[in-house]
Amino acid sequence: MADTLTATARDCRVAWSETLEALAREDDRIVAVVNDSIGSSKLNAFATAFPERTVNVGIAEQLMVGVGAGLANGGKVPFVSAAGCFLTGRALEQIKADVAYSGYNVKLVGQSSGIAYGELGATHHSIEDLGWLRQLGQITVIVPADSWETEQAVRWAAAHDGPVYLRISRMKVPDLDIPDRRFRPGVAEVVREGDDAAILACGTTVHLARDASVLLAEEGIRARVLNMSSVNPLDTEATLSAARTGHIVTVEEGHVRGGLGGAVAEFTASAHPCRVTRMGFDGFRTTGSAEHLFEEAGLSAQGIAGSVRASLSA
Amino acid sequence: MTDRSNTLATIRDNALWMRRRAFSMVHAAQLGHPGGDFSATDIVATLFFGVLRYDPARPEKADRDRFVMSKGHATGVLYTALCRAGYYSEDWLETYMQPGSKLNGHPNRQYVPGVEANTGPLGHGLPIATGIAIAGQIDGSDHRTFVLTGDGEIQEGSNWEAAMTAGHRKLGNLTVIVDRNRLQQGQGTEETSSLDPLPQKWTAFGWEVIEVDGHDHAQLLEVLGAEPGDRPRAVIANTVKGKGVSFMENQASWHHGVPSDEQFAQAMEELV
């Protein structure tokens, strides 16, 4: 649909950095840890306001995560913020041992995640992160869908005592129009009702799933749309209910293996087998803008609607 | 006796107890890393019984000094030190590496009081210790952080990421001790990927460097107990892998070798 990226679309990174700055004014335990990523994390204002609480370790991701664990040991609430591809790929063992297994209160913030760095190539795409971190189990993995949810997720992470991964995209997204919203990890938001099929989406793809459901409604197909705010924990209640429609389509700005689609397929395989179509990126992509790569992978209202139709007619 | 000679006597007694107890744990479990336990014993005993400020009844106390065991495989020496320091009773040691034990082959802070980080993969301790030291710097706290690494371990690049930042930030509250026994798992460090000239490497990263005999309690107490300076401190402790048992000394095979009943009996005769 043409209206998916209208003037109302906003950069979630702004919500992230403004919220962190506001929280840091109230809580002096909050520290930002970066790998020469102040600008790309939109933390210039934070660094100016709190220079002593901005720890820039240089281009050293293993150290960055280890320092996060050490700061937590010392009573701080560190937000470790870097491009998602380097944060989760380069420092995966530190995330496993120093944060998840050690149980330290570290907030990992993957910036420009997914396919946002489109033209820069597969080294800079972060499509494996959801699968890698979801499997560690001890980390709450949150994929905000818009600016409102980003702010809520940052606030929740700061108040929560335990490891968190926040996945922030660079792609602008419109705010979802859902009444009486309340952010809770492990609880999906119902974006649209419907019982013929269910589209389970997260992050930047939720608004596309919503638009797909609108298209399908014009054909008389009622497709439920859920915003899966967290991939770990998975909202198993909502997923079970979705499985009872018989047709689930998962959509994410991530790898089709291991992330949201993987979690839903694993769960439904034993809880309530149904047809699960996983949409996302299947391995390394060629160069192209993020918008181009989305289109190529069928991550559009038309593409998602097509997957729902295909499932229903299979 | 003076306070200092009392302290040295306590360190000596505890080091002997730790070696005997750690080796009996390894003998019982038929698992462990006794060569590295013994090279590190005098360092760890000096820290716990002569240098560190801690309260075993309050292991999370904010202003405690921290000891980060980066060579996480040396749990024989770590667990015996924490036991002797009063964090838990001796019967815990009987469970070493048994099914369901809190005393895993590598330490877990969520089960074992006094453990600061779940180490095991190498090159993790110094980055974590750097973070603790930065927290202390931000707070203006006087707590100190000591981290013990193996020498082969510093082939891991993450150590040098930390060395660079700790030097840059002039973390005087941070001390690394390198257990320089010159042997890694398979062979000598200098045959594998040489570390020498080691002092110059730390100096180049902005650290104060001191070399000591890592089995000389008086030297260790003087250097580790010294007031913090204006830079992080690297103590290169020259040690002997398997120190204290004649047939184990300087043998790479005792990295994770385990004793037969006869070898255990002989070791107990020598460790007196």
From TrEMBL, chain A:
Pfam families: Transket_pyr, Transketolase_C. It comes from the Bacteria. Residues 10-175 form the Transketolase-like pyrimidine-binding domain. InterPro entries: PDH/Transketolase, THDP-binding, Transketo_C/PFOR_II, Transketolase-like_Pyr-bd, Transketolase_C. This is Transketolase C-terminal domain-containing protein. It comes from Tropicimonas omnivorans.
TrEMBL record, chain B:
The keyword Lyase does not apply. The keyword S-adenosyl-L-methionine does not apply. It holds the Pfam family Transketolase_N. Keywords: Thiamine pyrophosphate. Residues 19-262 form the Transketolase N-terminal domain. Gene3D superfamilies: 3.40.50.970. SUPFAM superfamilies: Thiamin diphosphate-binding fold (THDP-binding). Its cofactor is thiamine diphosphate. InterPro entries: THDP-binding, Transketolase_N. Belongs to the transketolase family. PANTHER family: TRANSKETOLASE N-TERMINAL SECTION-RELATED (PTHR47514:SF1). This is Transketolase. It comes from Tropicimonas omnivorans. The lineage of its organism: Bacteria, Pseudomonadati, Pseudomonadota, Alphaproteobacteria, Rhodobacterales.
